[in-house]
Amino acid sequence: MKRQVLGVTAVIAAVVLLFGSAFTAGQGAGSKVPEPPLLPGQKPFTLDLGETISYSQSKNFEIVGHSYFKGEWLTESARQRGMGCGFNVPRVYKGVGYFAGYDDPPTCFGVLIADVSNPADMKALSFIPCNPGTRCNYLRLNPARKILVVGMDSSAANPEQPAGGPAAQAGFAFYDVSNPRTPQRRGFYLTLPHGATHGFEIDDRYVYGCATTAQTKPANHELLILDYADPERPALVSAVHIPGQYLEETYEPRDQNNLDGSPQRVWCHEVNYHKDRLYVAWRDAGMVIVDVSDRTHPGIISRLDYVPPFHGGALGATHTAAPVVVDAAKDPTLVVLTDEIIACPPGYGRIVDISDLSNPQVISTLRIPHVTDNVDRATGKFVCPSNGGYVHHPWFDFRSPGLLYTAWIEQGLRAWDISDPFLPREVGYYLSPRYPGRFPNRQVREVYQDRDTGLLYMADANGGGITVLRWVGPIPRRPIPAAVPGAR
Fold first, then answer.
1. Exposure class string for 31-51: b at 16+ Cβ within 10 A, else e
2. Stretches in the chain below the pLDDT threshold 50
């Protein structure tokens, strides 16, 4: 037995020497966690806080609040099933939560604003419905100006559709939320009738958003920059696209096909902003970094395209490109990428060294091995428990960017120590009770941390509402610079 162990160790050492730590970064992390118990006959959408705690599994998280946010804003089908609101994006400021509803399963077509000052007893304050025929899964809050920005994306799932008039109005809406009980719509920027919008980010004056336009091919998002200095009259400043996205354009060879011959999905999906740079997840085009120091003339300054050789699935690969901000006054040297690949094998995470913008390099991966690495050697194919085992949105703890939270759909919320970015380690998890919906167990899409309280607000899109958590584990050190050699 000793000889076998030594032999395996020698092999691992040889692999590290040949390929570096990027191939062993997830070792020992992401172990399978038993599903939380659920008593026979227990209804999943009726649990009180004590039952929610009892029917959860967690490590280094404390559960301090939960609400399904049931009410008249729910769709009829959700009410009939006893479900709560399904949410995509949460934001919290000064005791008020802003939660963007999700459309699959169809539960909430709008933004719910709530008093969350007491996480154990959260109360709805108001509800902003989406435009007819749209979903509004994305929002951002400008707390200084008390402006809420909401993306409107055409959706046939919305029970309220335009009646005989214009097509669904897709675009970005601006609300005055000075009084969260009575939000007031101030303006709207129409991107395209019956068009599509997706992820976006804002600063104090500009919206950086993904949307289809009259210039793009169908179902194809470019990056728009809007000026909302006057929220009643938002205006287009400029746009960025990958060659091939516009009508009559042809994609470059690297953006055409996957290895199996299927077409790549090359469209803007999510945006993060830091110091006049946008870090954009552009699906099968990978990570795209855009210089916006001149908003009227933005330019692509870096790109990491890894599809192929990696696959992107039916909807494309990269979901989020999140810069690891160690020093707010400096440009980051690391980015966390997540791949929303709803397939088998599913999407996972990567950490990328961008210290040289001309040559970004993957230095490690974030994996849950029993989901992402489960290969049937006999058939040569991956085996997955369901199609909901993919990573979704990342979030950094404000106390140290060395502590990373990742929403992992059916695999719940996962916490990682990335203080050594070459060797990230899973250090915590939270698996909620089973909320059956689009996926059998749960659909954890995003988590947001309130800087005032340190509490984490986790959104479940399967009708599980909002769960409030507190991290009780250690706070890792800030990540070491990417320039430190990782493969030894």
1. eebebbebeeeeebbebebee
2. 1-28, 488
- Quick: pLDDT tens for 37-71: 876 677 889 999 999 999 999 999 999 999 999 99
Classify residue 317: in a domain, yes or no: no
Identify whether 480 is part of a domain.
yes
Would you say residue 418 lies in a domain? yes
pLDDT at position 37 is: 83
The count of domains in the chain is 1
Kindly list the distances between the CA atom of residue 14 and the CA atoms of 18, 28, 361, 363, 485, in Å, as whole numbers in the listed order: 6, 18, 21, 18, 18
Residue 9 has, within 13 A of its CA and on its CB side, a CA count of 6
Over residues 156-193, the pLDDT tens digits come to 999 999 988 779 999 999 999 999 999 999 999 999 99
Q: How is residue 5 written in tokens? A: 């162990």
Question: Which amino acid, one-letter code, is at 266?
Answer: V
270: which 2 tokens? 């999510």
The answer to whether residue 226 is domain-embedded is no
Q: In this predicted structure, what is the pLDDT of residue 40?
A: 66
**381: domain range?**
20-83+344-488
Query: Tokens at residue 150, please?
Result: 């909401």
- Does this model's pTM top 0.85? My answer is yes
**Confidence (pLDDT) at 297:** 98
Q: 312: closest CA among 272, 335, 341, 337?
A: 341
Residues in a beta bridge with 408: none
